[in-house]
């Protein structure tokens, strides 16, 4: 996927200026930056919730920046939003089934559920419980699982480690690494700079709506600017 010099506004307030990034098939790309930098806006624009006022977005050689979110989801792009956005009064299994609404084949849906239970065994143990009674870590696992139910070609995650215990963060990132091994392409927006860049093939830094740095994940992790500004070192 290629994001080419997009500028994005909320009505009269511009949030992104000429932001570009590339996500190659089968890699993990992390986007880091301070709160309010425009990272979530970038994800919403890729998903079609917002449309750029200039520039364009190409996915698998097709322009998608004018399409609706439903159309973009059908092309294989899925966003796991910040805050999980689960249906708390529905069971774990029902949440997963809703995530697979675009899979017409029941056998395929069952296969995806089995795959998610393999990635997150605790969800199988909790499958009959309402999602609202799960722990924060279990809810985040369910949010990831629900996103995977659509069998995406590009999986986007917005702040997946937010508010989670270190052991749960390690589990979530372990699953992301496993998904990469299986060939999935992942775009990650994250405040946990160390974890994000250690996991990423490449990374981008966005500040005040502009891309200010990009490079290999490990390369950025050793950058004096990143270590001082984002890691307190």
How would you describe this structure to a colleague?
By secondary structure, the chain is α/β, with parallel strands linked by helices. The chain has two domains: 1-76 and 154-165 and 181-233, P-loop containing nucleotide triphosphate hydrolases (Rossmann fold, 3-Layer(aba) Sandwich); 86-151, no CATH class. Helices cover 39% and strands 25% of the residues. It has helices spanning 39-47, 69-74, 92-99, 106-119, 121-125, 136-148, 166-181, 193-199, 217-221, 224-230; strands spanning 2-10, 13-22, 28-32, 54-59, 62-63, 77-80, 154-158, 185-189, 202-207, 210-216. The strands form two sheets. Strands 6-7-8-3-9-10 form a six-stranded mixed β-sheet, sandwiched between helices. Strands 2-1-4-5 form a four-stranded antiparallel β-sheet, with helices on one face. Strand 9 and strand 10 (210-216) form a beta hairpin. Helix 3 packs parallel to helix 6. The model has no long low-confidence stretch (mean pLDDT 93).
Summarize the structure.
With 233 residues, this protein is of the alpha/beta class. Helix content is 39%, strand content 25%.
Mean pLDDT across every amino acid position: 93
- The percent of residues in helical segments reads 25-40%
Any idea what the CATH superfamily of the largest domain is called?
A: P-loop containing nucleotide triphosphate hydrolases
The count of helical stretches stands at 10
Structural class: alpha/beta
SS elements, strand count = 10
β-strand amount: 25-35%
Which CATH first-tier class of the largest domain would you pick?
Alpha Beta
Gap from first CA to last CA: 33 Å
The helix/strand series, from N terminus to C terminus, equals: EEEHEEHEHHHHEHEHEEHH
């Amino acid at each position: 996927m290629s994001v080419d010099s997009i500028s994005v506004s909320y009505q009269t307030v511009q949030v992104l200026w000429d932001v570009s990034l590339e996500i190659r098939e089968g890699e993990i790309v992390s986007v880091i930056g301070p709160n309010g930098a425009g990272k979530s806006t970038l994800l919403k624009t890729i998903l079609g919730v917002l449309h750029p006022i200039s520039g364009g977005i190409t996915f698998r050689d097709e322009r998608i920046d004018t399409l609706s979110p439903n159309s973009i989801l059908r092309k294989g792009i899925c966003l796991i939003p910040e805050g999980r956005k689960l249906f708390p009064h529905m069971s774990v299994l029902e949440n997963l089934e809703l995530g697979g609404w675009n899979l017409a084949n029941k056998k395929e849906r069952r296969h995806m559920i089995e795959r998610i239970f393999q990635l997150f065994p605790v969800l199988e143990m909790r499958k009959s419980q309402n999602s609202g009674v799960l722990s924060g870590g279990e809810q985040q696992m369910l949010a990831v699982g629900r996103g995977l139910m659509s069998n995406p070609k590009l999986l986007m995650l917005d702040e997946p480690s937010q508010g989670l215990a270190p052991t749960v963060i390690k589990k979530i990132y372990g699953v992301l690494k496993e998904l990469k091994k299986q060939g999935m392409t992942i775009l990650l927006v994250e405040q946990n700079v160390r974890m994000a860049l250690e996991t990423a093939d490449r990374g981008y830094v966005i500040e005040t709506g502009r891309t200010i740095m990009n490079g290999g994940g490990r390369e950025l992790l050793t950058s004096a600017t990143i270590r001082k500004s984002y890691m307190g070192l």
